[in-house]
TrEMBL record:
It comes from the Eukaryota. The keyword RNA-binding does not apply. InterPro entries: BXL, GH, Glyco_hydro_3_N, Glyco_hydro_3_N_sf. GO terms for biological process: arabinan catabolic process; xylan catabolic process. The keyword Ligase does not apply. Residues 70-295 form the Glycoside hydrolase family 3 N-terminal domain. This is Glycoside hydrolase family 3 N-terminal domain-containing protein. It comes from Ciona savignyi (Pacific transparent sea squirt). Keywords: Hydrolase. Pfam families: Glyco_hydro_3. GO terms for molecular function: alpha-L-arabinofuranosidase activity; xylan 1,4-beta-xylosidase activity.
Length: 295
């Protein structure tokens, strides 16, 4: 049975809100909407309503805001919830060295994502892989042969990975004022194994020199940011002993050096790992504070 999206009667005049006025700039509309949110509403949006693992952020009925699911994968197609074009794995795509082709592929993904999202919303489906915030591309550098996600990367070359990152981001997001979908570059940073031997990816610390992290691991993320990506995902691992999602490099490097002004999302359960696997914090409350302050 289909679920219809219905708003309460008192919200039928929502068009009067400035954030719904399409004659205003995108920035003006966003500022108006954010300023109308209560602190509790912001917290519920950040934590997806307190649901465990995946689930939609709750609706804000008084503003006519629907539920929204952030857990959406688009790496090689919008194909994890119903039919869609499914492209080859990125490691195979990288072997083509064809940046225009990757850009065209990402555009197709964006068109299909928008069409399917509209249909999901129409029928009240806000489950996994129904949103437009694509957790893609994977721009980690393939360094460890036992890592279980090597096939999702563009290989071991930071330059090629950077070029493909730009092609994917610009193809997915396009150049219109309102984007068909948004790219979330992942996983920041130095996240490429091991999978579980000799240690788990959830508790692994990548001990990386300043030179290596700059020359090898930052390059593709810098390109992602400069290509206009609206999101970045922090990773499970630690970098030199500090968990990625609590690491000052999110603020100092990603935001200040690269001028990233989008949103940062944690990998699934990565925040819990900060105290469970790394013992970096002593409580969930401290973990949340450390992550927010990090960027």
């Amino acid at each position: 049975m289909e679920k219809k999206v219905v708003f309460r009667k008192e919200n039928l005049n929502l068009g009067n809100f400035p954030f719904r006025n399409i004659s205003l700039t995108r920035e003006e509309r966003v500022v108006d909407l954010v300023n109308r949110l209560t602190l509790d509403e912001v917290i519920l949006q950040l934590t997806r309503g307190g649901v465990r693992d995946n689930g939609p952020a709750p609706a804000i009925d008084r503003l006519g805001i629907n539920r929204y699911n952030w857990n959406t994968e688009c790496l090689r197609g919008y194909a994890m919830n119903g039919d869609a074009t499914c492209f080859p794995q990125p490691i195979g795509l990288a072997a083509t060295f064809d940046q225009p082709l990757i850009k065209k592929m990402a555009h197709v993904i964006a068109v299909e994502a928008r069409a399917k999202h509209n249909n999901f919303t129409k029928h009240g489906n806000f489950g996994d892989h129904t949103g437009l915030s694509c957790f893609s591309p994977v721009i980690n550098i393939m360094r460890h042969p036992l890592w279980g996600r090597n096939q999702e990367t563009y290989g071991e070359d930071p330059v090629l990975t950077s070029l493909f990152a730009r092609a994917y981001v610009t193809g997915l997001q396009g150049d219109e004022i309102y984007l068909p979908a948004t790219a979330v570059c992942k996983h920041f940073v130095a996240y490429a194994g091991p999978e579980n031997i000799p240690t788990s990816r959830f508790g692994f610390s990548a001990n990386v020199s300043d030179h290596d992290i700059g020359a090898t691991f930052y390059k593709a993320f810098r390109e992602c940011v400069h290509s206009g990506a609206l999101g970045v995902m922090c990773s499970y691992n630690a970098i030199n002993g500090i968990p990625s999602c609590a690491n000052p490099m999110l603020e100092n490097t990603l935001r200040r050096k690269f001028n990233f002004n989008g949103y940062i999302v944690s990998d699934e359960n990565a925040l819990e790992n900060i105290d469970i696997f790394f013992n970096y914090t002593k409580s969930k409350m401290e973990t949340a504070a450390v992550a927010l302050n990090a960027g």
